[in-house]
Amino acid sequence: MPTQPQPARPRYQQIADELRHAIETGKFLPGAKIPGENQIMSQYEVARNTARQALAVLRDQGLTEARKGSGIYVRAFRPIRRNAVSRLSQQQWGSGKSIWAADIDDRPLTTVDVEVVEVDAPEHIAAAMKLPNRARVWRRSRTFVVEGEPVNRAVSYLPSDLVAGSRITEVDTGPGGTYARLAELGHKPIRFREEIRVRMPMPAEVEALQLPPATPVILVARTAIDESGRVVEVNEMAMNSSRYILEYDFTS
Amino acid sequence: MPTQPQPARPRYQQIADELRHAIETGKFLPGAKIPGENQIMSQYEVARNTARQALAVLRDQGLTEARKGSGIYVRAFRPIRRNAVSRLSQQQWGSGKSIWAADIDDRPLTTVDVEVVEVDAPEHIAAAMKLPNRARVWRRSRTFVVEGEPVNRAVSYLPSDLVAGSRITEVDTGPGGTYARLAELGHKPIRFREEIRVRMPMPAEVEALQLPPATPVILVARTAIDESGRVVEVNEMAMNSSRYILEYDFTS
Q1: Beta partners for B236?
Q2: ipTM, interface predicted TM-score of the complex
Q3: Where are the transmembrane segments (chains A, B) (predicted)?
Q4: By CB count within 10 A, which of A47, B85, B94, B232 is most buried?
């Protein structure tokens, strides 16, 4: 980046800056309608293409969203601050709390498209769990909906030889969820790894998460490991990136 | 998602599946040219739009990239596995190593567009550091280039009252980098927080990282905290999401 005088910002950037400032200072509140292409064209005396580019900047910054046939609105959803370390601490699930309660305060959470079924382990899951080919695993799939918005589609795998007959094979896993049950089975998760990848969504993800255009997905693959070093769960999540801030705390 | 028999996958998905399989099994090696629209149309007897959609799936999965006027190629870049905990451990920078050495093995790393300058702290940086308004900070900006590709644009801020006169204000901070120098100054970072946001890139990010279309950026904002609880650095990074896998290890 230049250290000396900057060239003038392009016109569409200047317009986007002004609109962003109006959003950030509360002139346009969350959920408010902002000027559309026609209004920007006349207000700033610019061509349609310039107005369109200015609006695209705001959309790509996650500040606005289009509603079909209605206009462009300031995004109303307060991002989910997902602090991996505190939500997955034993104090959370060990005391019977939901992991999710740590993320969303008192916002309404529901779970939809739930499926709990025993399957042959997909190849990469068997490899991660050091299971033989075609080993059986329980697969728990669900979509988490916060304030009426699907934000996260999660698919967990757990080895059948560990969890058969437990509440982990039921839709409702009980207080503290899967990790509390694993602890009761003698396989308490003591270490986690989360791997994060980011890309544009597949059509199935667009559908499951009702993603607006230009919204990437965050893929988090979590591995849970017990005291003996065994991988007791792999959880593959796809998140609406505009709804999340991920936080990781660690020491040097 | 349905639990019962799935509807047939759309034709473009089937074609994308086949091409992905060919890439994953090495029929098309990294850097190889894959069939274009015309070839897919004749080989699979489909319309142009179907061929285009199939290619878009591969692109959105980060498997391929278009080169202007030449065709579509399998991406050759091996993703950077960035393990936050091990790269930022005292064993790394405390022994004079570069943090980056932990990420990229022996791949060539260069740093470009380096700027080290004292500025008034931007508002959000002053707030994060609990500094008064218009406090002075040193800003270190640089773009990291791995195997000839710009992958990460990082801008660090450090309070002037801590770092004035030290090598942190020079382009070359010396063995172990900024954190080793902070330790010598009596402000060793002992805790870190990384906050992750994801969105489509701004034009300046497209330029700095030479981003191809449909490539989101990962924004990582890291806070480094010393023994007294003081924030001694904020580092704001923008990464090419197709080049990175982020890893976080933690205990329950």
Answers
A1: B155, B221
A2: 0.82
A3: none
A4: B232
